[in-house]
Write a structure and sequence with these properties.
This protein is mainly beta and 506 residues long. It is built from one helix and 29 strands. Strand 28 and strand 29 form a beta hairpin.
């Protein structure tokens, strides 16, 4: 494994302070200092989908578009809550989930439709009483939970009640896959005789998923009339109500298996800004190893509100920051297009309130994209001995402001990559382009020149495209057999998932 030496340009004004170990703090001697620790999650290849509105892709557009989902459960080998619905927001979205995008609840009443409202709920753990879902004429409630990378399901629990004329019994069963057969967990008889909410918990005996290949887990609650109810009240299957609150599933979620990136040593840099006046209060750096499990970054902050930029650089090429910095709107980041393997990860924390010691996970994404030239010539490439790729358009990253003129050598210096291709093994040349985090596509432009063994220019072409960070951009065409200049003979393709390529045209 190659160890990469990182040189970082960090020159700050009097408000900044910097130590290699990240243990720094700024403020008066009377302030209460809090230990703030971030655990850096593995540098996995999470995918940013291309801007679907901009490119016209997504539902109703390109059929190859795929929805990227995210959850808010941290990987752990210990049992924890994998899904939780409190209904406090009066909707059917989970508060906690391994995959909050694709988890859901479907309701079926006796008339074949659904009719639900919300009523006062009960407290659960650190969640306030809030609301509970209240279903009129309930028949079945199905809770669907994606379980990719879940290795064990331990138990489920929820609070339930019914009205005087509602169902008093229910059965609960489970299934893997939406079309699977359901297996009974329990038959609950005459336990809803009153209208007060009761807590039900069901041990699933550590259902092991592991290598079973299941991607979803479904729990079905089927309500029944029952025989115990207040005197003088009779069952009304269409008007009686059944309510559920605080549905939780527990299990083990170690997260996806992640192959080490093999990037060796790198540097993580952070800039902490005061949320009240946007002033820089801390800046620092720490050496990390890309293959280390959950490396920690710890520093001290006084009570207050902050926002933070984190950057992890695994490149020989340094990142360029402002030579002086006091406010967030002066902050920019840039990396010259000089190396073929610039690897930079990052993330932004937009709101962080400190009033006690804090530990939290930090998930970082690619702040670069891979640019690929794929030459489709059927002959003649052996005459090409050298290819130069010049970066025409500088892509400076401004996390907290609109773009402004950063001045100096940054905007004037020529940036050029030189390749000595061996077309007997591959018809491609590749490099990484630092973009930062791009909420909308950014323009990139390159001038490509091909030379023969005598240094004579065989062809020159300018290409350009709009691209986000964390995707692959390919220019595909003939290097020598085409004529003309701008994008002549080159088509543009994007891959928004690096491991399973998806080409998206425009």
């Amino acid at each position: 494994m190659m160890s990469l030496t990182v040189v970082v340009l960090l020159l700050f004004g009097a408000m900044s302070s910097c130590k290699k170990d990240g243990q720094i703090g700024i403020g008066s001697g009377d302030e209460a200092w809090r230990n703030v620790t971030f655990r850096i999650k593995p540098f996995e290849a999470r995918v940013n989908p291309l801007m679907t509105n901009y490119y016209g892709n997504g539902p109703g557009g390109d059929p190859n578009w795929t929805q990227v989902s995210y959850g808010n459960v941290s990987p752990s080998e210990s049992e924890q809550i994998l899904y939780l619905w409190t209904f406090n927001n009066e909707d059917l979205k989970p508060d906690i989930g391994v995959d909050t995008s694709n988890a859901g609840i479907s309701l079926l009443n006796m008339n074949g439709g659904s009719n639900n409202s919300y009523k006062n709920g009960v407290k659960f753990s650190t969640y306030e009483a809030g609301k509970a879902i209240n279903i009129t004429g309930a028949d079945e409630i199905t809770i669907s939970m994606p379980v990719i990378n879940v290795t064990e399901i331990a138990k489920i629990r929820f609070d339930a009640s019914s009205s005087d004329t509602g169902p008093k019994d229910f059965s609960i069963s489970y299934s893997f896959g939406s079309d699977g057969d359901y297996s009974i967990i329990s038959e609950v008889n005459d336990l809803l005789s009153s209208t007060s909410q009761k807590t039900f918990e069901f041990d699933l005996n550590g259902i092991i998923l592991l290598e079973e290949g299941f991607d979803s887990f479904h729990v079905k609650i089927k309500v029944k009339e029952g025989s115990q109810r207040p005197e003088g009240k009779t069952y009304n299957p269409n008007a009686g109500t059944f309510s559920i609150d605080n549905f939780a599933m527990y299990g083990v979620y170690p997260g996806p298996e992640i192959d080490p990136l093999g990037l060796g040593e790198g540097t993580i840099l952070y800039h902490v800004f005061n949320a009240i006046d946007s002033s820089l209060v801390q800046a620092g750096q720490k050496s990390i190893n890309s293959d280390q499990v959950l490396p920690e970054l710890t520093f001290k902050l006084s009570d207050g509100e902050y926002f933070i930029s984190f950057i992890a650089n695994f490149s020989e090429e340094p990142l360029i920051f402002p030579t002086s910095l006091s406010k967030a709107n002066e902050f920019f980041i840039y990396q010259k297009l000089l190396k073929k393997s610039a690897v930079v990860y990052g993330t932004l924390i937009s709101e962080l309130e400190i009033d006690a010691d804090l530990n939290m996970d930090l998930e970082m994404e690619r702040y670069f994209s891979e640019v690929n030239f794929e030459f489709t010539d059927t002959h003649g490439l052996t005459s090409v001995q050298k290819i130069e790729v010049e970066n025409i358009q500088k892509t400076v990253y401004f996390p907290y402001s609109q773009p402004f003129d950063v001045g100096g050598d940054l905007t004037e210096q020529e940036e050029k990559l030189v390749f000595m291709p061996d077309f007997s093994t591959s018809n491609n040349i590749r490099f990484h382009h630092f973009l930062g985090k791009t909420p909308s596509p950014r323009s990139v432009s390159y001038k490509l020149k091909a030379f023969d063994a005598n240094g004579d220019l065989l062809r020159e072409v300018d290409v350009s495209a709009m691209v986000n960070n964390n995707v692959q951009l390919s220019f595909v065409g003939k290097l020598l057999e085409s004529t003309g200049n701008i994008n002549s003979g080159f088509s543009i393709k994007w891959k928004n998932e690096w491991r399973q390529p998806i080409n998206i045209g425009f």
